[in-house]
Write a structure and sequence with these properties.
The structure holds two protein chains of two kinds. Chain A is mostly helical. Chain A contains twelve helices and two strands. In chain A, strands 1-2 form a two-stranded antiparallel sheet. In chain A, α1 crosses α12 and α7 crosses α9. The longest helix of chain A is centred in the N-terminal third of the chain and has 33 residues. The C terminus of chain A is likely disordered. Chain B has a domain of about 180 residues: MetI-like (MetI-like fold, Orthogonal Bundle). Classes of the chains: A mainly alpha, B mainly alpha. At the A-B interface, α1, α3, α4, α5 and α7 of A face α1, α3, α4, α5 and α6 of B.
């Protein structure tokens, strides 16, 4: 009885500041103002499926998926190397993976402008190595780079934490039974790390598909992802109806993808990563 | 041997990728030329000027004030919620647990704009208070998920024992339960604090009326070209974090090896 009372303020808070706002989004998405009052309409939702907006959604999905794949390809070996090291440097190395997140992410992303410029540091290094220069600023490639850069730790950490827990004796058993290192990895280590990979995928894909900052900073002013489109509706054109419809679509998309991935992970209560 | 060197090379490349922008940012806080990409010689001027820049100081003030108040309130509210949740069973528990997750799985942008719609609808003017309310909301799950595991470890008998010995329920909580879950509360508080300091998206949508934080200031500067004073500020803040981590690490090393956070 007493314990239920304790939950009262929290539940009231969440109803007002977490549930009610979502209902407002639904309401704005399904109504349009005409003659001083708002009437029910599907117009905003149908507009989401116009070709020009579908192209934006498709590009957001494509770039987010590509970034997630790259984070996996780059991050998995990092996690693997981190677990294979003796303890003392490993603790420091794990901190080093997380540490960049304590520097403001806008400023870090902005710094890539300096690095990627025609006469920037990256091209200086490339020309020193006698490689051709890159000119990717304000393109898809720069946006993907920004996403991989910002979200790589989200992929490394969950994979690291499951790899860390794998029973060493299983790996030794596989080796004793004559498995090559590649087979041991393919048949013993990788299947056991899938839960970490899945939560890494969710944690990278979700912020990547919803971002409007990375695309604004590295993609240039005209560059549009679904996040930019939503931001514009609320803060530039004040079309709350269409903005809410886009947000609903985005949430539905995330619930479907996230739901599928989390279900297959067999999520347990209380795990942050 | 070859494998070990390959591993080292690979890790070095990844760390170069992660730290190159941070290095650039810090180096340009000591650059006397104002424009990015041009090196004009070493200077500490930006550090001196930083403290006379009204706009940046105001942003820093609101950032810290918001982080302190929101993390304290989120910690109190989140801790009571976790205690309440740990006493629940069955369907109510399932429902509330899912509710706890909501601000975490809701994308930043949707959370920001939906709260903006709410504040406008219930006529809370967009400004410091609205930003504060939003920060408390997104910090809550981090507090709850830090406190819940600690509550699981405490013995339920202790609370009953306190009651048997004549303590009122409230006293039993404050004197018996709270001290036991203190490490979880502290972790939750620190998480809430860092989430608040670092937030851009939700603040961007829920603030107004001339109130900005450091992240919003950076965003608006990014279009005109970033002021090196911001680089100086971020360098100081980053150095502060490293010092704090070092102290925390020393303390952890004395208490117990390998804490989760």
């Amino acid at each position: 009885m007493k314990k239920r009372l304790i939950n009262g303020p929290y539940l009231a808070w969440m109803l007002l500041f977490a549930i009610a706002p979502l209902f407002l989004v639904v309401w704005y998405a399904l109504t349009a103002e005409s003659g001083g009052e708002r009437n029910f309409t599907f117009a905003h939702l149908l507009r989401v499926f116009e070709p020009i907006y579908l192209r934006v959604i498709w590009r957001s999905l494509r770039l987010a998926l590509l970034s997630t794949l790259l984070c996996f390809l780059i991050g998995y070996p990092v996690a693997l190397i981190l677990t294979s090291r003796p303890f003392r440097p490993r603790a420091i190395l794990v901190v080093l993976v997380v540490l960049p997140m304590w520097m403001n992410f806008l400023a870090r992303t902005y710094a890539w402008l300096t690095l990627l410029e025609k006469n920037g540091l990256i091209n200086a290094i490339l020309s020193f190595l006698r490689l051709p220069p890159v000119d990717i600023l304000y393109t898809d490639a720069a946006v993907v780079l920004g996403m991989v850069y910002n979200f790589l730790p989200f992929m490394v950490l969950p994979i690291y934490s499951v790899l860390f827990k794998i029973d060493r004796t299983l790996i030794e058993a596989a080796e004793d039974l004559g498995a090559t290192p590649l087979t041991t990895f393919r048949r013993v280590i990788f299947p056991q790390s899938l839960a970490g990979v899945l939560s890494g995928v969710v944690m990278v894909f979700m912020p990547a598909v919803t971002t409007f900052v990375i695309s604004r900073l590295l993609g240039g002013g005209q560059y549009t992802l679904i996040g930019n489109l939503i931001e514009q509706q609320f803060l530039t054109t004040y079309d709350w109806g269409f903005g809410s419809a886009l947000s609903l679509f985005l949430m539905a998309l995330l619930i479907v993808t996230g739901g599928i991935l989390m279900r297959s992970r067999g999520d347990e209560e209380g795990g942050l990563w | 041997m070859v494998r070990r060197w390959l591993s080292r090379l690979y890790l070095s490349l990844v760390f170069f990728f992660l730290y190159a922008p941070i290095a650039v940012l810090m180096v340009f806080s000591f650059n006397s030329a104002r424009s990015r990409g041009v090196w004009g010689g070493f200077t500490l001027d930006w550090y001196a000027q930083l403290f006379h820049d009204r706009q940046i100081m105001a942003a820093l003030y609101y950032t810290i004030l918001c982080a302190v108040i929101s993390s304290v309130l989120a910690t109190v509210l989140g801790t009571t919620a976790a205690i309440g949740l740990s006493g629940m069973r069955g369907l109510p528990r399932l429902l509330v647990s899912n509710l706890v997750y909501l601000p975490m799985i809701n994308p930043d942008i949707v959370m920001g704009l939906s709260l903006m719609l709410l504040f406008i609808s219930i006529k809370i003017p967009l400004g410091f208070v609205s930003m504060l309310l939003a920060h408390i909301t997104f910090s809550l799950p981090f507090v709850i998920f830090s406190v819940l595991p600690k509550l699981k470890q405490t013995q339920a008998d202790l609370y009953d024992a306190a009651l048997d010995l004549g303590a009122r329920p409230l006293a039993a909580y404050i004197r018996v339960i709270i001290p036991q879950i203190m490490p979880g509360i502290v972790t939750g508080f620190l998480l809430a604090f860092t989430m608040s300091i670092d937030d851009f998206v939700v603040s961007f949508f829920t603030t107004g009326n001339g109130v900005t934080n450091v992240a919003i200031t950076i965003y608006s500067m990014a279009r005109r070209g970033m002021n090196p004073k911001i680089n100086a500020l971020l360098t100081i803040m980053f150095a502060g974090v490293i010092v704090l981590l070092f102290i925390a690490n020393r303390r952890m090393a004395y208490s117990k090896p390998g804490g989760k956070n």
